Amino acid sequence: MYTHSGTRSSTSALAMVLGLISTFAVGTSHAQTAATASNETLEEIIVTAERRVEGVQKTGASVSVRTGDDLLKEGKFSLGSILEDVPGITGGAALATGGTAGGGTDNPASGLVIRGIPSNIGAGGSTTSTASAAAIYVDGVYNGVGGSYDLERVEVLRGPQGTLYGRSATAGLVAIHTRDPDLQDFGGNATVETGNYSLQHYTAALNLPIVSDVLSARVSGNYYARDGYIDANGGAVRSTDGRIKLLYKPNEDFSLLVGAALSDSKDHSGGTLIGVSQFPNVVEYADVPDIQSVTAKSRQYWAEVNWNIGIGTFTYLPSYRSFDNDGTLLVYGTSGVLTEPLRTRTDDFVTQELRLASDPGSKLIWQVGALYYDNVLSNTSAAMFGPVMLYQDDVIRKKTTAYGLFAEATYPFADAWRVTAGGRYDDTEISVHEFYQAGALLGGGSYELSGDAGKRQFTNVTYKLRLEHDLTPANLLYASVSTGFSPGDVTVAQETTPQGVVLQPLELQAETLTSYEIGSKNRFLDNKLQVNAAAFYTKYGAYQSAGINTNPNGFPPIFTTLSSPLESYGLEFELSVKPTAADLLKLNVGWTHARFVDKPAEFARWVANDEVSSTNTPGSQAPIPLMASLGYDHIFTLPGDSTLTLHGDVRYLSSHSGFFGQDDRNIVPNIESNVRIEAAVLGNLNATWAATENISLTGYVRNVGDHRYITKTIYSSGVYQPYLNDPRTYGAVLSVNF
């Protein structure tokens, strides 16, 4: 084992990017500031956050929006980077998360934290079919495929959204919208991105009108590859994505969109990995003399029908999605090198949603609907110390069926006053057949869960009430109370007893949440200044924390899931100001106070920290109490009417608690400070030269100062294992529209 800086760079690539930016800077010496009238005010952003089309400033909820064009220019591809400056959001890098970090997951919301509530990860870090505390929708499909390319916009809704969205939208959701076919214009775009760590990123889209104003297709694809940040081969990632959409709209009252999407990824592990240390806050590296990989494949087919039937618009959205993964993952943990063979043979999802909504001009705005969800899973996972010493072997066959009924209405009961009320009924049934084999380290033995013992049913009613008042047409006040629901589960788990390790069923109760929110949305100075703010209080019952080691000796780790009530409250603030047509300043601040409360005795023993943190599951993320980002853009007009946009932003991430147990506190002096995560400041820069509306070239640098800091520390068996943030990355992006 050895210490290592963890930073690899390409001098030529850095010189290229810096040279590009410096060339732009020289070119601005005779430039004039752009000042067209159309750019003098903040743009109006249209969203569908509440399943209807409206301006984001007219939506009485905490909603943030990021546009696909901006994300492409900033070199933001992963969900974590897309959401990094959104108030109240932490994590989201679910392309490689969970206990099988690097093994892929069928739940892209794993690792996402909204308002202090981490998304659930299955016991032991399962990658499959966990009902997380947050939901992600891609083109209206729950946990849909292809949410990182050819993007129109990304909407982030904080707070419970269960009334309209149902399953797992407990803490909030991310709604990703990709570009739909254009019925009139032939065209497309192509983007080439290159950067350090051997980054290669290619994305393209083609719009093909087949019958003008009636039928059109859009085809898009994406390829992303880079080396690992520590070991070039051991951390390498590759992904290939494709999507086709066909839109048929014979008249204004009817439209049919059908689509198909695929995603293939390959993540490598092994080589040089972060190892363990006997000392806190020390990063040491270890060589694992092997390179392994896990491939993950997703396929999705869906449709969306919208039909104005007179009394309202009828919407039908069916979808089918499949996921499978296969391979071996190498993890260097506090107990040594863990080899994890993974195989998901079947993981099929069918969803069907029906909605009937009032016409947009109706005085009473209403919608009613129903949702059906079905998942069939067959998954095998194992864990071994070294090539032969079995730790555990788990075979799961599981079926989950759920349906929901919902209704919501908004009524203007007085001038500039509106009230919204909604309700939802959910019914979830699960049937589990699981065979769990413990290895010699756990004392051997096996347990089979099947029949009635593996069946559970969870029902719940959620609601939303909201009051809105327009102080002026540009100033909105709102107050709301809403609830959320996430179904429970049953699985085989290990439990430490005086007689040794015992295998038995672990029943996870349904999770419920109640949230109170007040907020305000405002435009001032003739739409040049936007100020949005929200305050919230959330009470979460029986929050599930996975990956908790309940072996008092630390080794071998006995992972289980424990539950405790949780509460969080905080403030969110978003400011955008456009003092001139060429300048834009943005400030985003999120403060969250998230704590476990009224902890059960068993939970208190193994989770000593009151502040909500990550757990020993590698993919789990911790809430960051205070996050703030400040960004600035300036546009120069160059000769020939080309433009240069310079952008810079800085983010502050406050210190926060790490994970430790009561036994750790009793044995290890200063354990709380040893695992505490220190504050960090990160900065990004990018410059975009646009020759015309159709050609642009961007150079970007993320984490400009190459600040490497510990984002999480796992303590077990007398040693510490830290995790690091991403190093400095830089690249160039060439985009062409035609």
Could you characterize what this model shows?
Keywords: Cell outer membrane, Ion transport, Iron, Iron transport, Membrane, Receptor, Signal, TonB box, Transmembrane, Transmembrane beta strand, Transport. It comes from Nitrospirillum amazonense. Residues 188-704 form the TonB-dependent receptor-like beta-barrel domain. The chain is mainly beta and 738 residues long. The protein has one domain: Maltoporin, Chain A, CATH 2.40.170. Helix content is 6%, strand content 59%. The chain contains seven helices and 39 strands. The strands form six sheets. It has a 22-stranded antiparallel β-barrel. A five-stranded mixed beta sheet has the order 5-11-12-9-10. It has a three-stranded antiparallel beta sheet with strand order 6-7-8. The longest helix has 17 residues, at 11-27. It is globular and about 70 Å long. The N and C termini lie far apart (53 Å). Residues 1-18, 20-38, 94-102 and 123-128 have low confidence and may be disordered.
